[in-house]
Specification:
Blueprint (H helix, E strand, L loop, with lengths): L1 H6 L4 E3 L4 H9 L4 E3 L3 H5 L4 E4 L4 H11 L8 E4 L4 H14 L3 E4 L2 E2 L2 H6 L2 E7 L1 H14 E8 L3 H30 L3 H9 L6 H12 L8 H14 L4 H18 L9 H9 L3
Parallel strand pairs: 1-2, 3-4, 4-5, 7-8
Antiparallel strand pairs: 5-7, 6-7
Helix pairs in contact: 4-5, 8-10, 8-11, 8-12, 11-12
């Protein structure tokens, strides 16, 4: 996201809880400067974007830094934190007179590089207008979901759908193997009709290659399913998805891409000599 903003003419101050990551990212990006503290990053910025693992991380980082956010700035809270944490963060912003947008995104590394994220935004219209140049630089669409924290609620639903579909794809590949159906033939049957899901078709390539370089990490998907379970009892389907994610993390693939849920199919195939 920082690199894309720099490429589109924005001056970016980048901070990360692991300083080496910010330094490495800034070294490869035009218009991006790594800074030593979150306070330095937000000071005098017109738009502040937080992208962290969860609500606790965002709250910890912004507890001190928010005092340095300017009164004319907009805080774009883009982390996937769930509606409960989003409300607490909105209250923190309100206590300091800072405009706040509840604005997680749909999309990961490649869409961010290409400026094709989809923003799921809730908050004040005026704040959205002021942040719009930054949102448009990073995204292909801005979906306005409401005036509260509807963006965070919508993001949990989107991620639950994405994760369940990925687990289902792995299981259907196992079915293809049992029926003697070539995966390429299966893909062709989908991509030429209304059942094609480009995201999941891409996952087949990663699954078959056993290549799980992170786009959206398994442990983050598990975190989001857990956030949804805090709000409503998980359905039987989402409970199965949760258990599959847990098993994948236990197998050592927590930091790998979501396609790694297929690791168990691959292991079973190897064990049976397929």
């Amino acid at each position: 996201m920082a690199a894309r903003l720099g490429e589109t003419g924005h001056a970016v101050r980048l901070w990360n809880r692991t300083p080496e990551r910010a330094l490495a990212a800034a070294a490869q990006a035009r218009g991006v400067t790594a800074v030593a503290t979150a306070t330095e990053a937000v000071s005098d910025a017109s738009v502040v974007i937080t992208v962290l693992r969860d609500g606790d991380a965002v709250a910890a980082v912004m507890a001190d830094a928010i005092a340095e956010v300017g009164k004319d700035a907009v805080w774009v809270q883009a982390s996937t934190v769930g509606p409960r944490s989003a409300r607490a963060l909105a209250a923190l912003a309100g206590d300091h007179g800072v405009a706040y947008l509840d604005a997680p995104v749909s999309g990961s590394t490649t869409p961010a590089h290409e400026g094709k994220l989809v923003w799921l935004v809730a908050g004040d219209d005026g704040a959205l207008d002021r942040a719009r140049p930054v949102l448009d630089a990073l995204g292909s669409a801005v979906l306005y979901a409401g005036t509260g924290v509807e963006g965070s609620s919508l993001k949990l639903a989107v991620n639950a759908w994405m994760t369940a579909a990925t687990v289902a794809m792995s299981d259907v590949l196992a079915l293809c193997d049992a029926l003697g159906i070539d995966h390429a033939t299966f893909v062709t049957a989908l991509e030429d009709g209304p059942l094609a899901m480009p995201y999941e078709l891409q996952k087949i390539t990663s699954m078959d290659a056993g290549s799980y370089s992170a786009g959206f990490a398994v442990q983050l998907a598990l975190k989001d399913i857990d956030l949804a379970a805090e709000l409503t009892a998980p359905s039987p389907l989402l409970q199965v998805v949760h258990d599959r994610l847990e098993r994948t993390v236990a197998a050592g693939h927590g930091n790998d891409d979501l396609a790694a849920v297929d690791y168990l199919r691959s292991e079973n195939a190897s064990a049976s000599g397929v």
